[in-house]
Write a structure and sequence with these properties.
By secondary structure, the chain is α/β, with parallel strands linked by helices. The protein has 2 domains: 185 residues, Medium-chain alcohol dehydrogenases, catalytic domain (Quinone Oxidoreductase, Chain A, domain 1, Alpha-Beta Complex); 137 residues, 3-Layer(aba) Sandwich (Rossmann fold). Helix content is 30%, strand content 26%. The chain is built from 11 helices and 15 strands. The strands form 3 sheets. Strands 3, 4, 5, 6, 7, 14 and 15 form a 7-stranded mixed β-sheet that branches. It has a 6-stranded parallel β-sheet with strand order 10-9-8-11-12-13, with helices on both faces. Helix 4 links the parallel strand 8 and strand 9. Helix 3 packs across helix 4 and helix 3 crosses helix 10. The chain is globular and about 60 Å long. The termini are close together.
């Protein structure tokens, strides 16, 4: 089969289209999926630049997110049949099990039926950001109806989903964006307030919005210094969740401690890296619930651009250039 193989760590041109062995079902619970599209996420570009979690396994195929059609099932599979359209977040962290390819073998317990209303390109762009936003807001921060949330990077992949999930929970949302066009975009998703962070102090705007108290929940999708800058925008005993490393060179946690903030780091890849079967099944359930919300018109995935599989390097360049609205994906013909 064809796959976009990472021949070494480095710049986007280390991604090369090659013929590799087609994967085969290895146990009774696995299904063979003919991939129609693969999502592209920042973790892909980071692994490409620095190396994967499993550098000794070859070939190296990136891509955690996939969507396609079940072609073959193991003898013990009960949830899926050939012809079913599915989507999932599995593989892509090193070795041959990645979704920048024509086929993937996955355990039936860890995948979900694709939202019928989405194209394969849209569906492939969804799993990682859906799970990340869901776990961050619902599981980590325990966001409740009537609360106020600050979501950084609201026009981005995770951010644009987080706004919608927060609104579905009955919360009010203030989000940061870089341009007036993005401000219009996030308002269309339900954001109550959009702050152009290049022109206004988001902390002041947040405190003004909350009558000086700060938000119940802040969600950091950017990292670096912004994590520490966000602390005074969170109310005492509030929650601050980040999906990036907390880097001490940018600040300290004294003010967070004085405010009794609950600080949480979210990485949805942990169940995959640690082979946590129950947690992976929980993530598949999140995708099932999100598929229902999407098909009911309550949740949207914004796909900014789709590339051909052979154009993976160009897709990486676009993502690394920054200022993305929504997601991008690879279409596999």
């Amino acid at each position: 089969m064809r796959a976009m193989v990472m021949i070494s760590a480095g710049e986007p041109d280390v991604l090369q289209l090659q013929e590799v062995s087609k994967p085969a079902i290895g146990n009774e619970r696995e299904v063979l999926v003919k991939l129609k599209a693969a999502g592209i996420n920042p973790v892909d570009t980071k692994l490409r630049k620095k190396g994967t979690f499993y550098p000794d396994k070859n070939p190296q195929v990136l891509g955690c997110d996939g969507a396609g059609v079940v072609e073959e099932i193991g003898s013990g599979v009960s949830k899926f049949q050939p012809g079913d359209e599915v989507y999932f977040c599995l593989g892509g962290l090193g070795g041959p099990k990645g979704n920048y390819a024509e086929y993937a073998v996955v355990d039936e317990r860890f995948i979900a039926k694709k939202p019928q209303s989405l194209s394969f390109a849209e569906a492939a762009a969804a799993p990682l950001v859906l799970i990340t936003a869901w776990e961050s807001l619902y599981d980590r921060a325990r966001l409740q109806a009537g609360q106020k949330a600050l979501i950084h990077g609201g026009a981005g992949g995770v951010g644009h989903v987080a706004i919608q999930l927060a609104k579905l929970q009955g919360a009010e949302v203030l989000t940061t964006v870089g341009t007036s066009e993005k401000a219009e975009f996030v308002r269309g998703l339900g954001a109550d307030v959009a702050v152009l962070y290049k022109e206004a102090d988001f902390v002041k705007a947040t405190l003004d919005w909350t009558n000086g108290e700060g938000v119940d929940v802040a969600f950091d999708t950017v990292g670096g210094a912004l994590f520490f800058q966000t602390v005074p925008a969170v109310k005492i005993y509030g929650d601050l969740v980040t999906i990036l490393d907390i880097e001490p060179q940018y600040g300290n946690l004294k003010e967070a401690r004085m405010r009794n903030l609950r600080l949480t780091q979210e990485i949805m890849l942990t169940p995959m890296l640690k082979n946590m079967v129950d947690a992976l099944q929980d993530q598949a359930k999140i995708l099932q619930q999100c598929a229902r919300l999407i098909d009911e018109g309550k949740l949207k995935i914004n796909l900014s651009k789709a590339f051909a599989l052979a154009e993976a390097a160009e897709a990486h360049k676009l993502l690394e250039a920054g200022s993305m609205t929504g997601k991008i994906s690879l279409v596999i013909e």
